[in-house]
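> example.struct
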């Protein structure tokens, strides 16, 4: 084991350069013009996996390709060794708005002990940490106590819809004891975390259509409805004064928080003033009766992600816009049923929509919430690995973000996900100036190295 640790230390500088090379690919899965960049990025991952001694291949899907890479199978043939799948994603969120980046998003730069660039933290740096750990085993000839298969996909940020059939097709090859995922956060560098729940998600576009085309607002305004105004009024009715989502049935199935859980949440370090400053808001806002830690991880929400209508250019233009559109996502918690909630939303919007505009609701993909017991032997092994690597007592957390495929891992492979995130709250994931802390990178590699020892003992 000492050889592995020494190797990781000695090769940090190169690992950082490799992270930069990885981040240089503009692998934005939401934008069709980046299709070739996603493929090039996936090919880079395959090449990298081969260089460190893995057997790697690129698998085509109906969308962006999936990288599958395995450790050379050791042990006696036919003997059953523990097998773990390491999941990650090489796609990234759109970098816009570009003018808010202090350096270009796909020209990674080292500063203040971190690498800046879109995808550095979510998720390239985190999955590369696992690759570096396995490289250390393979290059030092240290026997791994288990078999590993890496699955690094290119559509996580758009819902992973093509990965589900992929898992079905490869279920025999991917049969495993657990899925290890570093694609979540830790509350601070001194609080390594095991995440035992994620929120689910469902996305929509709500479009209101009025006149056949934009109209002169002086000539026609006052006689026809304004779709932008109608949309604002409609959306305004979806939240009450207490910060609750005002859609009948929305909270059906929400599991109340137990006293034990609330006590655990209260242990997560949280400072309102610092949090406010970090986010740049004048005051926090959230559902009454819950703490911010509870609000953002264990309560469902309704968010407008984008709002578009009418003239967006410079200066003014006096029109009644032909349409207005909101891009929306809801976050779901156990045991809300996405299909049920979507039905409630559809019904309620239809009821609220005035006859003066036409409502169109486009559904995007959805994913159910995820919850796993944090007390099992694998979770305990993961906590030991975190503690050894970070030399700090780890915390158990629930996270508000979503990893759509975790439920399919459970359903298809019947394996739990161990969520061991390395992202810090100020990493700016999905925001301008995303970064990945180099301390988290190095300790994440160590954690991964220890993890295989700890897990294989269970
Ligand atoms: N890494 C995140 C998920 C995450 C972030 C979980 C922080 C817990 C804490 C992941 O890459 C992500 O952003 N997922 C999307 C999924 C969506 C686009 C379907 C999300 O949560 O918005
Ligand atoms: Zn993300």
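> example.seq
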């Amino acid at each position: 084991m000492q050889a592995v640790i020494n190797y990781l230390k000695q090769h940090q500088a190169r690992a950082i350069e490799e992270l930069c090379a990885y981040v240089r690919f503009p692998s934005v899965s939401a934008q069709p013009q980046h299709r070739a960049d996603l493929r090039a990025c996936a090919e880079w991952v395959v090449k990298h996996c081969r260089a460190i001694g893995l057997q790697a291949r690129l698998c085509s899907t109906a969308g962006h390709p999936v990288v599958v890479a395995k450790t050379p199978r050791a042990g006696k043939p036919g003997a059953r060794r523990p097998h773990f799948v390491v999941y990650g994603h090489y796609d990234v969120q759109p970098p816009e708005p570009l003018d808010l980046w202090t350096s270009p998003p796909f020209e990674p730069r080292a500063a203040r002990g971190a690498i800046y660039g879109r995808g550095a933290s979510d998720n390239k740096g985190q999955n590369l940490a696992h690759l570096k750990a396995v490289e250390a085993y393979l290059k030092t000839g240290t026997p791994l106590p288990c078999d590993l298969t890496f699955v690094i996909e290119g559509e996580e940020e758009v819902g992973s819809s093509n990965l589900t059939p992929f898992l079905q097709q490869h279920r025999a090859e991917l049969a495993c004891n657990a899925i290890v995922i570093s694609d979540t956060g830790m509350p601070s560098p001194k609080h390594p975390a095991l995440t035992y729940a994620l929120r689910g998600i469902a996305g929509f576009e709500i479009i209101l259509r009025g006149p056949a085309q934009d109209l002169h607002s002086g000539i026609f305004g006052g006689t026809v409805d304004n779709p932008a105004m109608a949309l604002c009024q409609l959306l305004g009715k979806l939240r009450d004064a207490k910060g609750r989502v005002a859609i009948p049935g929305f909270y059906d199935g929400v599991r109340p928080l137990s006293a034990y859980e609330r006590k655990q949440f209260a242990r997560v370090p949280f400072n309102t003033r610092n949090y406010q400053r970090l986010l740049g808001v004048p005051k926090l806002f959230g559902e009454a009766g819950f703490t911010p830690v509870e609000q953002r991880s264990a309560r469902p929400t309704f968010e407008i992600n984008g709002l578009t209508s009418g003239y967006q250019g410079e200066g003014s233009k006096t029109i009644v816009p032909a349409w207005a559109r909101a891009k929306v996502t809801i976050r779901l918690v156990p045991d809300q049923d996405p299909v049920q909630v979507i039905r409630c939303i559809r019904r309620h919007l239809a009821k609220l929509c005035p006859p003066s505009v036409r409502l169109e609701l486009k559904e995007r993909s959805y994913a159910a919430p995820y919850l796993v017991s944090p007390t099992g032997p694998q979770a305990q092994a993961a906590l030991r690995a975190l503690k050894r690597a970070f030399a700090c007592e780890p915390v158990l957390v629930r996270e508000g973000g979503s990893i759509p495929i975790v439920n399919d891992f459970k359903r298809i492979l019947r394996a739990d996900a161990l969520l061991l995130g390395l992202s810090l709250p100020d990493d700016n994931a999905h925001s301008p100036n995303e970064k990945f802390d180099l301390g988290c990178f190095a300790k994440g590699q160590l954690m991964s190295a220890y993890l295989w020892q700890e897990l294989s003992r269970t």
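> remarks
The chain has two domains: 2-198+369-456, 200-254+300-367.
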